Amino acid sequence: MKKYQLLSYCATVGFRYSSLKGYQWVRENYNQQMFALQNPHLVRKSGRIGAIIATKDFDYTQVGAGAHIAIRGIHLFFRNIGEQEIGTVFFSPEVQEILRLKRTMENNRRLGCMEYEYWISQKNSGNTYGDKAMIFWGSNVGPDARANLQEASAVVGENYSKLINFRNTL
User: Fold this and answer.
1) Could you give the CA distance from residue 58 to residue 167 in angstroms, rounded to a whole number?
2) CB atoms within 10 A of CB 103
3) 77/74 Cα distance (integer angstroms)
């Protein structure tokens, strides 16, 4: 039971005070992302923002597209809490190779395995309660769940992109 209680606490990190504070938190995180995407040379590459930069140039036929959307979603709600050195992982040549692969569940799972192994290696290394909670969460989300999340993120992103493009033709 403690495991699921801690996961529940993870989901509320950043929304401590009120819905207004939560909105401001998400808005600030979104603004950080936009700044980083427009100025990648000015941001720290080793953290979660670095992971966003490392995954930004992939199209919806590639593994990297779903990973990019998923990482941005995590950053929106959790910012740098528990980020450790995840950007370094996504900039690694091994992960970059996987990100370029065709988007299939098998390839998404390959990426999920690498992420999962990283988070397992980070257990007990967070400096704050929030860090420890996020690392706990990361080390308990297996490769299959990660593959499904990345695939779902890519499908939603691709469909949203098509909708926007269609709307712009009207």
Assistant:
1) 23
2) 22
3) 6
Please enumerate, as own/partner, the contacts of 18-26 that have beta carbons within 8 Å and a separation of 24 or more: 25/79, 26/76, 26/77
Q: Read off the tokens for 14.
A: 């950043």
Give pLDDT tens digits along the chain (170 positions): 344 444 445 445 544 444 556 788 889 999 999 999 999 999 999 999 999 999 999 999 999 999 999 999 999 999 999 999 999 999 999 999 999 999 999 999 999 999 999 999 999 899 999 999 999 999 999 999 999 999 999 999 898 888 888 878 88
Q: Which two tokens stand for residue 116?
A: 């999962």
pTM as predicted: 0.85
State how far the Cα of 140 lies from the Cα of 116, in Å rounded to an integer: 8
